[in-house]
Amino acid sequence: MEAIGKTVLAVIKGLEAKKCGFSDETPAAWLKKVLTKKELGHIKLNYFKKGILGVSVDSAAWMYNFNLKKEKILEQLKRESAQVKEVRFRIGDIR
């Protein structure tokens, strides 16, 4: 009986965490779900602080591409985690 109680408690906690938008996933995992493999090859996650996701992009052309899709990317990221409030792209080194 004790094992069942622990299992039920774990399931409830997991559901509450997803409902609140908090999960064990990282910002990198969120980006992997939202972007294509090709796009992922041109970015590097710099930081995630106070709801702002900072991403470096390797060229001006890709920066333009990501800025065109910024609203769609942000919407998808918000579906992955309610913690995300904004995404900022900047040109930088991705290595």
Short description:
The protein is an alpha+beta fold and 95 residues long.
Descriptive tags:
GMP Synthetase, Chain A, domain 3; elongated; three-stranded mixed beta sheet; 5 helices; alpha+beta; 95 residues
Summarize the structure in words:
- This protein has 95 residues and is an alpha+beta fold.
- The chain contains five helices and three strands.
- The mean pLDDT is 86.
- It has helices at residues 2-20, 27-34, 37-40, 60-68, 70-80, and strands at 43-49, 52-57, 86-91.
- It has one domain (24-91): GMP Synthetase, Chain A, domain 3.
- 54% of the residues lie in helices and 20% in strands.
- The chain has a three-stranded mixed sheet.
Tell me the distance between the termini.
51 Å
What is the fold named in CATH at topology level?
GMP Synthetase, Chain A, domain 3
How big a fraction of the residues is strand?
15-25%
- Could you give the order of the helices and strands? HHHEEHHE
**Poorly predicted runs:** none
What about the largest sheet? 3 strands, mixed
Order of adjacent strands in the largest pleated sheet: 1-2-3
**What's the CATH class label?**
Alpha Beta
CATH architecture: 2-Layer Sandwich
Shape: elongated
Structural class comes to alpha+beta
Q: Going by CATH, what is the homologous superfamily? A: Fe-S cluster assembly (FSCA)
Helix content: 40-55%
Q: Which radius of gyration do the C-alpha atoms yield?
A: 17 Å
| DSSP, total strands | 3
**Domains, number:** 1
Count of individual helical segments:
5
Quote the average pLDDT.
86
